[in-house]
Amino acid sequence: MPGIFVMFFTFPSPTPLHSRLKKSAIVLGRRLCLRFIVQGKDDKIFVKRSTAWLIFVTVSAMYCLVFMQRTGPGLIAQKLMEQYAIAPTTLSLMTVAQYLTYAALQIPVGLFAVRMHPERLLALGAFCDGLGTILFGTSTSFHAIIFSRVIVGIGDAMVWLNIVLVLGKWYDAGVFGRILGFVGMSGNLGAILSTFPLAWWIARDGYREPFVALGVVLVVVSLLSAWLLEHTTPVRPPLATGLYRPNIRTVFHKPWDMMAPILAHWGFMGPFLGFASLFAIPMLHTLYGMNAVQGGYYLALALLGSLMAGPIVGPLSDRFGRKIPYVLVGIVDVLAWGTFAAFAPILPRFILAAIFLVLGFANGASVLTFAVIRDTFTSNNIGLASGIANTAGFLSAVCVPWGIGFLLSAGPGLDISARDQWALAYVTLFSVLGTLGTLKIAGKARKKSAVGA
């Protein structure tokens, strides 16, 4: 009788198995937390472990490269201001254009991802990222640079959501959290690679050659992944998209099912991204007299925290449910932001280092948002719900630096360190909202059918 079985991924090639042996394999797989979904017919189990691993490695490598090109332009900010004779506020249009494009496309991508096949959109997103990066490296005017980052924003908007959908076809809910965690880790590894090897390459040869080379690699990876994803069939049959289309009213049928991940992503991903990308280094300079290199060490600690988060919180959420680890992350994140705001001018350096590590960890743990959504919504609505939550995260990343800049400029009568503290208190409010969101997550994952309501 056809069925779905879960077994340890190192089981030998397909052979008839005795029922007791199959049960032992299931128990062993669960204990070792290495479950895959495989399709069974009668006494035969057709294992596609090699393909599942290949899909995982492919999307992880792609996400690493995407993150490198996403964070790389920060390395040449000063160079661009000098080259095009522009002010920092004008330079920020480059980032704003990218993130607003990303946020604006999240809901449309979520609506059409299932219908248009997430595999194709994922490859197309990586291709746009590569094309935009090539244009960035060859631009001869600042207007061309802004246009190139808009192309990158379009590509970015199609990458993460479709990674979630593609992996959801291959991996069981019991292992999905850690799989997302490792993919998120690969992205943070890309951010670290952009901080060190890419920075060294730019210092040696200028920024044009490295960005063009990175863009070409991304284009090649996108074409290879398009072929691979098109010629592999997931073990879970695809959704009948013509009959069951994404529906916003269905997504918000139970408001807190959607609002909980929205608030969590708003509170943990956006604040860190907005703060780290624009104001972290200047604030460390005004509060502690650090130069860019010294401040970079603290940002590297934050990226290390992001790198560690996924492989830690993913398995914990698979074992104890999504809510408990996410709530604990939120509480620690609020304490970190609150301590930073209250005692910023007098914090010892080792506590400051710990705070940056925690802030980065909370950012990396925000991948749980998509594990929560995968557990909560039916297959036809996962893409839309993920798009809505991701939109909230990137809108937060826009609101945080805008609010910080406003507070730093609005209090000329205050000491500069006091203005920094007010700005950090403002960011803390975002984290508080995120933690409140985690408290409303359902305590247990609800297993939904592919087409159920």
Keywords:
453 residues, mainly alpha, Growth Hormone, Chain: A, 3 domains, three-stranded antiparallel β-sheet, 18 helices, 3 strands, 76% helix, disordered N terminus, disordered C terminus
Helix and strand topology:
Elements lengths: L2 E6 L10 H14 L2 E7 L2 E3 L2 H23 L5 H8 L3 H29 L1 H21 L3 H16 L2 H9 L4 H23 L1 H9 L2 H23 L17 H4 L3 H34 L3 H29 L2 H21 L5 H17 L2 H9 L2 H32 L5 H24 L14
Antiparallel strand pairs: 1-2, 2-3
Helix pairs in contact: 2-8, 2-10, 4-6, 4-17, 5-6, 5-7, 5-10, 7-17, 8-13, 8-16, 12-13, 12-15, 12-16, 12-17, 12-18, 13-14, 13-15, 14-15, 14-18, 16-17, 17-18
Write structural notes for this entry.
The protein has 453 residues and is mostly helical. It folds into 3 domains: 3-46, no CATH class; 49-238, Growth Hormone, Chain: A (Up-down Bundle); 243-453, Up-down Bundle (Growth Hormone, Chain: A), CATH 1.20.1250.20. It has 18 helices and 3 strands. The chain has helices at 19-32, 49-71, 77-84, 88-116, 118-138, 142-157, 160-168, 173-195, 197-205, 208-230, 248-251, 255-288, 292-320, 323-343, 349-365, 368-376, 379-410, 416-439, and strands at 3-8, 35-41, 44-46. The chain has a 3-stranded antiparallel beta sheet with strand order 1-2-3. A hairpin with a 2-residue loop joins β2 (35-41) and β3 (44-46). α5 (118-138) runs antiparallel to α6, α7 (160-168) packs antiparallel against α17 and α17 (379-410) runs antiparallel to α18. The longest helix is centred in the middle third of the chain and has 34 residues, at 255-288. It is globular. The two termini are 27 Å apart. Residues 1-18, 25-47, 237-243 and 445-453 have low confidence and may be disordered.
